[in-house]
Design brief:
- The chain is of the alpha+beta class.
- 40% of the residues lie in helices and 17% in strands.
- It folds into two domains: 5-129, Reverse transcriptase/Diguanylate cyclase domain (Alpha-Beta Plaits); 196-342, DNA polymerase, Y-family, little finger domain (Dna Ligase, domain 1, 2-Layer Sandwich).
- The strands form three sheets. Strands 5, 6, 7, 8 and 9 form a five-stranded antiparallel sheet that branches. It has a two-stranded antiparallel ribbon with strand order 1-2.
- The protein contains twelve helices and nine strands.
- Helix 2 (24-39) runs antiparallel to helix 3 (64-79) and helix 8 (160-167) runs antiparallel to helix 9 (169-178).
C-alpha cells in the first residue's frame, strides 16, 4: 500500500499481477453511471464518495434483503460493477452493515440489520473490531482499546456522556447511531468545495522553467474549469513544486500562496498570477517531479463585488469567453481549446502507458467485437 511501483514491479510480474495506469476520466464516468442507477431505488440519495452512496428508504415496506439483491443485480447489469448493500436504521449502522455484506460470504453481498433480532445483531457486533465502525481510525482505536472497548458491541454499550467527555461529541454521536438513534442527516446537496486542486506527478523529470510554466498553466486551467462547474470564484491561489523524495539529490519543495485582488474564475487571470508565483519559488538545477495549483477561499459567483482596478470581470465579455471554451471542450474533448501557455508537446505529462481504454467516454476507444 502506497509503495512506489518500481520497487515491486518485478515481484508483481512473478505473481501474475496485471498493472493499470490511472484513468480518471473513466472512473468519473462510471461513478456517475453508478449513482444515476442507484437514484431510481429511493426518493432521496446522498452521494458520499466516488463509490459510496446513502439511500433513504424511510416508509418503504418490503423485504429489504430481496430489495438489496435487486439493487445489486441492476447495478451489475447496467454498469458491470459488483457492489454490496447494507441496511440500517442510521447511517453508521448502514455503513457497518455494508462492511458485513462484503466480508460475510454467506450474506451474498447484502446485509440487513433491520431484520435481525437483537441477540444475533449483538453477537455479530461482538465479533467485529471497533475499527470497523465508521469514523474510528487507528489512533482512536488504540485509545478505546486501552479503556477495554475492543469490539463494536462494547462501543455500542458505552455510556454516551462518558464517551463525549473522553473523546468529544463526534464519537458520542457514533455511539448513539450504533443504538439506532439517527444523528447524521442525509445530505442530498453536496457541500460547497473549500478548495479546488489540480496536481499530477510528471512522466519525466523537469528542470527548465519553461516546462514548469506549461505544467502550472495546465493545472491552473484545469482547476479553473472545475471551479466554474461548481459556480464558484477563488480569492487566493496556492502554487507548489517539488522534486522526488526518492531522488539522490537533496529534497526541495517550495510553495507560495497569493491572495487575489478580487474573486475570479477567469482562467487567464489565474494563470497569470500562478506563473508570477512560480517564478518566485523556482530554483535552477533541480529535477522537479511534481507541480500543482490549488484555488482557495472559494465563494459563490453570485453577488460578487467588483473592484475598482479592473481585475474582476466587469463586463460579460470575459465571462462569455470562459463559458464558450468550457462548452466546446465538453462537446468535443478536453483540451480542444486551451491557452497557449499550456504548450503543445507536454513532455512533462504523467506517464500512463498502461491506461485502460476510456470505454464510456470516447468514441475512438470503444471495444470492437
Amino acid at each position: 500500500m502506497c509503495r512506489p511501483w518500481f520497487e515491486i514491479q518485478e515481484q508483481a510480474k512473478q505473481l501474475g499481477i496485471i498493472a493499470f495506469s490511472s484513468n480518471y476520466e473513466l472512473y468519473a464516468n462510471m461513478s456517475n453511471r453508478f449513482m444515476t442507477t442507484l437514484k431510481q431505488f429511493a426518493p432521496r440519495q446522498e452521494v458520499y464518495s466516488i463509490d459510496e452512496s446513502f439511500l433513504d428508504l424511510t416508509g418503504m415496506k418490503c423485504d429489504l434483503t430481496a430489495y438489496g439483491h435487486e439493487i445489486k443485480e441492476t447495478v451489475m447489469q447496467w454498469t458491470g460493477l459488483p457492489i454490496c448493500v447494507g441496511f440500517g436504521n442510521t447511517k453508521t449502522l448502514a455503513k457497518l452493515a455494508n462492511h458485513c455484506a462484503k466480508k460475510q460470504a454467506h450474506m451474498n453481498g447484502v446485509c440487513d440489520f433491520t431484520s435481525m433480532n437483537q441477540h444475533a445483531l449483538d453477537r455479530l457486533m461482538q465479533s467485529l473490531p471497533v475499527s470497523k465502525v465508521w469514523g474510528v481510525g487507528s489512533k482512536l482505536e488504540a485509545k478505546l482499546n486501552k479503556l477495554g472497548v475492543c469490539d463494536v458491541l462494547r462501543l455500542k454499550r458505552a455510556d454516551p456522556k462518558r464517551i463525549r467527555d473522553e473523546f468529544g461529541v463526534l464519537l458520542e454521536r457514533t455511539v448513539r447511531e450504533l443504538n439506532g438513534e439517527p444523528w447524521l442527516e442525509l445530505e442530498e446537496m453536496l457541500p460547497e468545495a473549500k478548495q479546488v486542486m489540480s496536481s499530477r506527478s510528471f512522466g519525466a523529470r523537469v528542470s527548465g522553467l519553461a516546462e514548469l510554466q506549461e505544467a502550472v498553466s495546465f493545472h491552473a486551467s484545469n482547476a479553473c474549469e472545475r471551479l466554474r462547474k461548481q459556480k464558484l470564484y477563488a480569492n487566493a491561489l496556492y502554487v507548489f513544486i517539488q522534486n522526488s523524495p526518492f531522488d539522490k539529490a537533496e529534497y526541495y519543495g517550495a510553495s507560495l500562496v497569493v491572495p487575489l485582488p478580487a474573486p475570479t474564475a477567469n482562467t487567464m487571470q489565474i494563470v497569470r498570477v500562478a506563473l508570477w508565483a512560480l517564478k518566485r519559488i523556482y530554483k535552477k538545477d533541480i529535477y522537479y517531479q511534481k507541480a500543482g495549483v490549488m484555488l482557495m477561499e472559494l465563494v459563490p459567483e453570485q453577488g460578487q463585488q467588483t473592484d475598482l482596478f479592473g481585475f474582476t470581470e466587469s463586463d460579460d465579455k470575459a465571462s462569455n469567453l470562459m463559458t464558450t471554451i468550457d462548452s466546446i471542450n465538453q462537446k468535443y474533448r478536453k483540451g480542444t481549446i486551451k491557452i497557449a501557455a499550456e504548450g503543445l508537446h507536454k513532455q512533462w505529462v504523467m506517464k500512463r502507458e498502461l491506461k485502460s481504454p476510456n470505454y464510456t467516454g470516447s468514441w475512438n476507444e470503444l471495444p470492437i467485437a
